[in-house]
Description:
The chain is α+β, with helices and mostly antiparallel strands. The protein has helices at 3-9, 59-81, 106-121, 155-174, and strands spanning 27-30, 33-39, 87-98, 128-134, 143-151. A 5-stranded mixed β-sheet has the order 1-2-5-3-4, covered by helices on one side.
Amino acid sequence: MKTEQRLKQLGIELSKPTSPMANYVNAVRTGNLLYLAGKGPGLPGQPLPTGKVGRDFTIEQAYGYARETGLNLIAVMKAELGDLDRVKRIVKVLGMVNAMPEFGHQPEVINGCSDLFVEVFGDRGRHARSAVGMGSLPRGIPVEIEVIVEVEDAPARRAAATRKATKKAAKKKKR
C-alpha cells in the first residue's frame, strides 16, 4: 500500500511544515540520507504547548505530543521528497523530553513518535532511537524530536542511473 493511502486509512491529514524558529533549515539531504531538524508539537493556529513532563503533563499527554511531533516530521519529509514512498527507512530518532529531573519515562513518551512511524511506514518505520530527558527545550515545549531518514532516489533519477550503467557495461563488453 502506498504511504499516502496508508495516511488516509489512518485518518491522518498532514499540515504544511512549520518554518524554522531560527537560522537553520527543516532538512538537509546528503547522498541518500535526509537529516531532519528538531521539531516539536504544535498545530497551525493553536498555541504551542509548554511545560514539563512529570509536572505539567502526564506520560499519556506527552506521548500525544510526541505523536503530534511525528506528524510534523512526516510533513517535512513530504515537503522535502514530494512522495513519502521515497522514504526507504527511518534510520534514527533522537527524542528529547522536557522533564522534571526525577522523571524517567522518556522512552514511553517518545513511543508516541516511534509508534506513529511504524503505523505509517510499516517495517520501513522501525528505527534506532535515543530518548533523553532535558532540563529545558526551546519555547518551553514538552518534546523535541529529530530524525535521520534513508531516501530512495526519485523514479526518473533511478531510471537515468540504470540507463547510464547499462550503456557503460555495453561499452566495456564491446572492447
